[in-house]
Amino acid sequence: MEKAAVIALLERYWQAETTIAEEQTLAAYFQGGHVDPGLEAYRDVFSYFHEEAQVSAGPDFGNRILQRLGLPLDGEDAGAGVPVHGQNPATGPDASAHEAPVVPMTRQPFRLGVMGAAAAIVLIVAGLFLLRPIGQPTMLADTRVTSKAQDTPRRADIADTYDDPQQALAAVRRALLVASRNLNQGRREISGTSK
Amino acid sequence: MSAETFKQHILPLRDKLFRFALHLLQNVQEAEDAVQDVMAGIWARRADWPQWNSIPAYCMTATRNNCMDRLRRRRINAIQVETAITLKNPDGDPYEQVTSKETIARIRQCMEALPPNQQQVVRLREMEGFSYNEIAQVLDMPLDQVKVNLHRGRNAIKKTIIKQEANQWKKLQ
To answer: How far is CA A141 from CA A33, A112, A177, B141, in A?
Structure first.
């Protein structure tokens, strides 16, 4: 359509002198792909009217009307517009048309499983130190347990296992190092799955 | 026979009636209720259908009257309803899309700021494609007043567009 013809039609449009057919011609021109750059500003007017005209009550509205009137329902409700509120069966009749973006949920159970495994590793390691059978030396405990402690297991469990505080500190450090390594291993597994 | 006529000629008007009811009531549920009431009333009067000049105009008039009754009952306290508008402008670049959305928002504001008669005339003409005579019948308004209201409404929108265009140029400079 020639630019001059569109301008002339637009002028009559603003004066409310156009017919419905002429207005449809204008709307088709502005909704088409080749709008003259000088007339680009008016495209939004027709876009607005077009989009507003797509608003509908939703796809099942016609059947609800028929149901209320006791008439046989249509197999396929022809409501073709943009529902103002959700008649999507998945969202229910009161859901908003502005839906939140859908976040994939498939990875979450897997991530929870890995986290659970990591937590289990930490618990097992902690259990080796804290919940071992009374009287048995720890995996990392030095064999240089006092003879008094060997004679009386319960007391040995409670009493100091090292005569030298430096040795005791070294043993604690080693134990914490092992726990830390296991914890880091679990964290690495988790971060690997989330990439 | 009546049921088929209803399905073919009246039921397809439901979205037009709904949009107009929504515009007046600003409430989705109430707009649906209004349209259902109107449809029930029209079905009850099916013996009169042959006497009606324009079924769309009659249905729209009934919808408007129903909405006015509802507004009177609740003493008009309109609630803003956001209707999703997604621009279909595949050729536009991101800047154009943003400015286009701004312009559309301005047009909507402009529409909402129009006097009620102008709003209704513009909506019935631009969105529902009603003739001047049908609009006059629906709004119970003289024909020349329909044209005057349409002219004023369209020109208010035109001014909005020109102003928006000028603002965008200022931003670019």
So the answer is: 80, 34, 14, 99
